[in-house]
């Protein structure tokens, strides 16, 4: 049976666009379905959130030809400082103490999204269908039949593989009747750009407070992305108060390590949930990014994990093509899970334990976690393991992460 496309990706957010770019050199016919016009400044995936990119993500973005285009908007992280409010323990990491020039990078999500879309649209074998919405799909031995709504009309397209990269509330996941494990952290991240009195010196700060982490991520000399996590029940209050009151609240929690906050941009809020799909694939279908796993942002691992999943899936697809297999061969998805599940589980355990440890009111845990931070800071082997985890290079990783061709 002749198919319209080899791969149909639902969602042109950063994970979906990254996958399209990663797969394009294969020559596969790729369609990407997106409901929101890409020029829309208010598309949720491309607001002014600061994204922290790990060195593993840099390698992947270099591999798919995007890094150079987004480089002018990239700010390196040379140092990381982690502490707990009112406690003695802290952890300090310096790129100069590692074999890497940088510990990570900060980019405004909108800038990365634009670079990904520019690269995606440069490939003749990628068709962007936008604005369009997924309505239903039906699996068969010959092909996946996918119904979409485009310009008010219903259309039917066929594909060998359907990729759900449509976020934590994934319609693909729901239509496939895939259940999830979920946990509401009852926290909301409030994000804004801030200008501080003192330069940040390319340092990322994270301070754990009783209501969630407060982070400042450097995006230029005196400008940082603020991530201020609060109890969800108090989020509306923090979103509605005047800028001066909000700045006072931030400085009370974070201190004035960078001096006073001189200016603050628009605040946006994001409820924090843990979501894990109990199965990530079916015949002719795979979930990627937040559709497969949404995690706590306390260690800035979410998008980096999704990008490593993209590299892993692309690697498995290219390996299958070399063997002469069709794109709907189930072994592609089985090999992908074997490659990626250990890293996914490791990151999910790490972020969940971090959340439960720092927001547990048991007084016996306080000295234990402060001792743990001191151990990370003073024991080279422990620190090296922690840094590898944060940089996304721990354990078995896709070839693109290791700097090799897929």
- The beta-strand count equals 20
Span of the ends, CA to CA: 29 Å
Helix percentage: 25-40%
Strand content: 25-35%
How many domains? The number is 2
Radius of gyration: 21 Å
Structure, briefly:
This protein has helices at residues 14-23, 55-63, 67-70, 109-120, 171-175, 232-240, 243-254, 302-322, 330-358, 365-378, 380-391, and strands at 5-10, 30-33, 50-53, 75-77, 79-84, 90-94, 104-108, 126-129, 132-139, 144-150, 153-164, 180-196, 203-209, 212-218, 223-231, 261-264, 268-277, 281-282, 285-287, 293-294. It is an alpha+beta fold and 406 residues long. It has two domains: 5-74 and 108-181 and 274-391, FAD/NAD(P)-binding domain; 184-272, 2-Layer Sandwich (D-Amino Acid Oxidase, Chain A, domain 2), CATH 3.30.9.10.
What does this structure look like?
The chain is α+β, with helices and mostly antiparallel strands and 406 residues long. It folds into two domains: 5-74 and 108-181 and 274-391, FAD/NAD(P)-binding domain, CATH 3.50.50; 184-272, D-Amino Acid Oxidase, subunit A, domain 2 (D-Amino Acid Oxidase, Chain A, domain 2, 2-Layer Sandwich), CATH 3.30.9.10. The protein is built from eleven helices and 20 strands. It has helices at residues 14-23, 55-63, 67-70, 109-120, 171-175, 232-240, 243-254, 302-322, 330-358, 365-378, 380-391; strands spanning 5-10, 30-33, 50-53, 75-77, 79-84, 90-94, 104-108, 126-129, 132-139, 144-150, 153-164, 180-196, 203-209, 212-218, 223-231, 261-264, 268-277, 281-282, 285-287, 293-294. The strands form three sheets. Strands 5, 6, 12, 13, 14, 15, 16, 17 and 20 form a nine-stranded mixed beta sheet that branches. α1 (14-23) packs parallel to α8 (302-322), α8 (302-322) packs antiparallel against α9 and α10 (365-378) crosses α11. The longest helix has 29 residues, at 330-358.
């Amino acid at each position: 049976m002749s198919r319209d496309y080899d791969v149909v990706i639902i969602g042109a957010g950063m994970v979906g666009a990254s996958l399209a770019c990663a797969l394009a050199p294969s020559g596969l016919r790729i369609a990407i379905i997106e409901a929101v016009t890409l020029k829309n400044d208010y598309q949720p995936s491309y607001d002014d959130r600061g994204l922290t990119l790990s060195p593993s993500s840099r390698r992947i973005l270099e591999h798919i030809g995007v890094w150079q285009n987004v480089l002018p908007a990239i700010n390196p992280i040379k140092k990381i400082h982690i502490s707990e409010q009112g406690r003695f323990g802290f952890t300090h990491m310096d790129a100069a103490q590692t074999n890497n020039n940088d510990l990570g990078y900060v980019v405004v999500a909108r800038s990365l999204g634009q670079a990904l879309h520019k690269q995606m649209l440069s490939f003749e074998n990628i068709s962007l269908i936008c604005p369009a919405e997924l309505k239903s799909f039906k699996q068969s031995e010959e092909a996946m039949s996918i119904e979409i709504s485009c310009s008010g009309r219903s259309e039917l397209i066929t594909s060998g593989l359907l990729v759900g990269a449509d976020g934590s509330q994934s319609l693909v996941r729901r239509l496939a009747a895939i259940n999830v494990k979920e946990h509401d952290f009852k926290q909301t991240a409030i994000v804004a750009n801030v200008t501080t009195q003192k330069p940040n010196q390319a340092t990322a700060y994270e301070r754990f407070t009783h209501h969630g982490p407060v982070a400042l991520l450097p995006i230029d000399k005196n400008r940082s992305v603020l991530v201020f996590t609060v109890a969800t029940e108090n989020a509306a209050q923090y979103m509605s108060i005047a800028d001066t009151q909000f700045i006072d609240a931030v400085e009370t929690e974070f201190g004035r390590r960078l001096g006073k906050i001189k200016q603050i941009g628009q605040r946006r809020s994001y409820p924090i949930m843990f979501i894990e799909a109990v199965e990530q694939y079916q015949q002719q279908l795979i979930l990627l990014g937040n559709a497969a796993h949404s995690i706590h942002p306390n260690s800035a691992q979410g998008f980096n994990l999704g990008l490593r999943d993209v590299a892993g899936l692309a690697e498995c697809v290219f390996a299958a093509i070399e063997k002469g297999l069709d794109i709907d061969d189930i072994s592609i998805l089985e090999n992908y899970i074997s490659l990626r599940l250990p890293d996914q589980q490791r990151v999910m355990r790490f972020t969940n334990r971090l959340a439960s440890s720092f927001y547990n009111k048991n007084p016996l845990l306080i000295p234990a976690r402060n001792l743990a931070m001191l151990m990370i800071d003073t024991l080279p082997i422990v620190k090296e393991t922690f840094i590898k985890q944060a940089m996304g290079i721990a354990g078995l990783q896709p070839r693109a992460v290791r700097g090799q061709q897929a």
